[in-house]
Write a structure and sequence with these properties.
The structure is a single chain. Helices cover 38% and strands 24% of the residues. The chain contains 28 helices and 26 strands. The strands form 5 sheets. Strands 1, 2, 3, 4, 5, 8, 9, 10, 11, 12, 13, 14 and 15 form a 13-stranded mixed β-sheet that branches. Strands 20, 21, 24, 25 and 26 form a 5-stranded antiparallel β-sheet that branches. A 4-stranded antiparallel β-sheet has the order 16-17-19-18. Strand 18 (455-464) and strand 19 (469-477) form a beta hairpin. The longest helix has 20 residues, at 433-452. The radius of gyration is 30 Å and the shape is elongated.
């Protein structure tokens, strides 16, 4: 079965991520869904993440499109400091079988090497002291709030890929609480002198949470998995708690007015979370508030601890007695306890005193990243020297500025060219036409850089989508007496000079000049350039542009827009307002349009999207040019054609003409069919258009699109 990793870009992708892998019914009855609002905050980048980087969401799909796995990839500087190395974290990781996990891990390894990470760790959502881990025993017992559950094959699948267990422990269950004697379990001795018991107050919870956070960070600071909880994280984790809090179950002790020990227990909402699938709509929230009394049979101990200086005085024993009394007063019969490490004997003793026993065995998984060959590796070889010059060859064009290429040295004289799944456009570029054209442009750019180093390059196209591999470039040394590399007329400086210009053009090439540019680009008899008449463009462009703005790929486009300068990837990739030449008002309008499926639907139904598209058209337009070849080119040939496209644009730049791609004309089926008919008629035989762009000379220098630094 061929499995591939896809980034979560659209709302449909997000719904698939929330649903999890297909066909696992037991997960619905034994697992506990993540809150949808939490996952959406990761996807939108709106959650608290002052110390962790962006949370990227991925799906594993098979050829039919069925979801076979999911994961997040993210980092956190606090955990890096704790571990003493930079780790890439996997979270919300679910998979149908070992093959799906292998694909997830392979993708994570690639990302780790690319970003200089030396370890994979997970699953954590988002940190070990939040929600995470793998159940290694007790699979017949359902999971519960703030804990995990997984099928029995998970541990073998992780360990089969070389992962090692870390932070082993267990969840616990204390049943039959009503029959226990608190005094018999924990004694009746009074609190030590100067120690006072405190209870939570719903009305003052906002004031009391900082006290809890202070004790929490102090009590667990020395644990290997614990990272400091920040105020915004605690606020997000306890949002809405005041409405559901049982004041008898959030307790702490103060000694000489200083908080020294605490315990937090909440009503068990597991059944409610399962009933909604993790959703919490306003209707669900009202239902929960109205029925909260039904969730008072079971409770979940989230966390408890004693600050280091107050340990050894029996304070937790006093708190446990008060907690048990509170549970009995509230009518609770069962207490479940989230993950407790094996070496925490003190906590285990407290739970045994309450009639408790381990429920699930749990652990986390960790694996070092084996050094691999990549752009950051050996630069003393010919391949390493070429790959290291990404600042030169990395200015190649790509749809939406996704920069999809993966370039690495396979050996001393061989460069592998492929692509990253999370930089594809599966909706707008379902056939991978734009992807292969972009990779062809990169291949030519690599050849230019190699020539600058005195190397000749042979390109062997062999596209393998299942491996995301496109070509191998073999580097050959020229004899000392050889002439300079002559088959490549381009210079590295011209790679840097090339830019996309989306502004109006004051001048443009005529048909004779376009024919000359085709010759300079080295286009052979199997491909060519044709200028397209204005009346054809006036007829096709509004509909094609409207299709981009409101059609199936509109949501995908929105994930690559960086219209707000505060966007975390504004200076990394994608399309900014400056690059698109949008005014502030136009950028606000574009954000509104791309962010609202309802608005896009209304515009499309009323055909008002064509009016918007026509109003947004750049004029004077300049000359519109089509790159054509024979119909149905395979992916290998498309890669080769991408080199011709890049050569044409370099030839245009040399003559003073900047290009502005109009891919929408090839993306929209109706306009694409019209173009194919027009070009076939002009060329006198079957022909297909593979790229369209405007050519002209602007009045100002075009803005430069950003480029990744990793």
């Amino acid at each position: 079965m061929t499995l591939t990793v896809h980034p979560v870009r659209t709302r449909a992708d997000l719904r698939a991520f929330l649903a999890g892998p297909d066909g696992d019914r037991r997960r619905r009855t034994h697992g506990v869904p993540l809150w949808h609002s939490t996952v959406r905050s990761w996807w939108r980048g709106t959650g608290p993440h002052r110390t962790h980087g962006p949370v990227e969401l991925f799906l594993v799909r098979d050829r039919s499109g069925a979801v076979r796995g999911r994961t997040t990839l993210h980092t956190d500087t606090r955990l890096d400091a704790k571990l003493g190395e930079r780790a890439l974290l996997l979270g919300a990781t679910e998979f149908a079988d070992a093959g799906a996990l292998a694909v997830i891990v392979r993708h994570a390894e690639e990302r780790a090497r690319l970003t200089g990470r030396s370890r994979l760790l997970g699953p954590v959502s988002l940190l070990p002291n939040q929600v995470g881990g793998v159940v290694t025993a007790g699979f017949d017992e359902p999971g519960f709030l703030d804990s995990v559950w997984n099928p029995e094959h998970y541990p073998g699948d992780w360990e089969g890929l070389g992962f090692q267990r870390v932070w082993e422990g267990a969840t616990w269950r204390c049943a039959g609480l009503g029959a226990l004697d608190p005094a018999g379990a924990f004694g009746v001795d009074p609190l030590p002198e100067g120690v006072r018991l405190r209870h939570a107050d719903r009305r003052r919870l906002g004031e009391q949470l900082p006290v809890l956070r202070e004790m929490l960070n102090a009590a667990f600071a020395e644990l290997g998995y614990f990272t400091r909880i920040e105020a915004d994280e605690l606020a997000a984790a306890t949002d809405g708690l005041a409405h559901l809090l049982d004041e008898r179950l959030l307790l702490w002790l103060e000694q000489d007015d200083a908080p020294v020990a605490f315990v937090l227990v909440v009503p068990d909402l597991t059944a409610f979370v399962r009933s909604t699938g993790g959703r919490l709509s306003p209707v669900d929230m009202v239902r929960l508030l109205l029925t909260r009394g039904r969730h008072r049979q079971d409770a979940v101990l989230i966390i408890k601890g004693t600050v280091p200086g107050a340990r050894g005085h029996g304070l937790m024993r006093h708190l446990s007695r008060e907690l048990l009394q509170g549970l009995q007063a509230g009518g609770y019969e069962t207490l479940r306890v989230t993950f407790v490490e094996d070496d925490n004997a003190g906590s285990q003793a407290q739970f045994r005193a309450m009639g408790g026993a381990p429920l699930h065995r749990t652990c986390f998984y960790s694996r070092a990243i084996e050094p691999g060959t990549g752009p950051e590796q050996d630069q003393d070889t010919p391949a390493g020297r070429v790959v290291a010059r990404e600042a030169d060859w990395g200015r190649a064009p790509s749809a939406h500025n996704t920069q999809p290429w993966r370039v690495r040295a396979l050996d001393a004289r061989t460069i592998g060219l492929g692509w990253y799944a999370d930089r594809e456009l599966p909706v707008a570029d379902a056939t991978r036409r734009d992807l292969m054209l972009s990779l062809g442009a990169v291949a030519l750019s690599l050849q230019v850089v190699a020539a600058d180093l005195g190397l000749r390059t042979e390109v062997d196209w062999d596209v393998r989508p299942d491996q995301r591999a496109a070509a191998r470039l073999r580097l050959l040394e020229l004899p000392a007496s050889a002439e300079p590399v002559s088959e490549l007329p381009w210079q590295v400086s011209e790679l840097h000079h090339r830019a996309t210009d989306r502004g109006p053009f004051a001048r443009h090439p005529d048909p004779a000049q376009i024919a000359t540019l085709a010759r300079h680009a080295g286009l052979g008899p199997e491909a060519g350039l044709l200028d397209l008449p204005d009346d054809l463009m006036d007829r096709l462009l509004p509909g094609a542009t409207a299709h981009t703005l409101t059609g199936p790929a509109a949501e995908e486009l929105s994930t690559w827009l960086r219209l707000d300068p505060r966007h975390p990837r504004h200076d990394v990739d994608g399309l900014s307002a400056r690059v698109l030449r949008l005014s502030r008002a136009e950028a606000r309008g574009m954000r509104l349009l791309t962010g609202s499926a309802a608005l896009r639907g209304a515009l499309a139904r009323g055909r008002l999207d064509r009016l918007v598209a026509n109003a947004a058209a750049v004029r004077p337009r300049g000359a519109v040019v089509a790159l054509w070849s024979e119909p149905g080119l395979p992916l290998d040939r498309l890669g080769h054609l991408g080199g011709s496209l890049m050569a044409a644009w370099l030839a245009g730049e040399r003559a003073g003409w900047s290009a502005h791609p109009l891919s929408e004309l090839v993306d929209e089926p109706g306009s694409a069919a019209a173009l194919h008919r027009h070009v076939s008629h002009r060329t006198g035989g079957p022909a297909q258009v593979y790229a369209v762009w405007r050519w002209g000379r602007g009045t100002t220098a075009p803005p430069r699109s950003p480029r990744r630094t990793w």
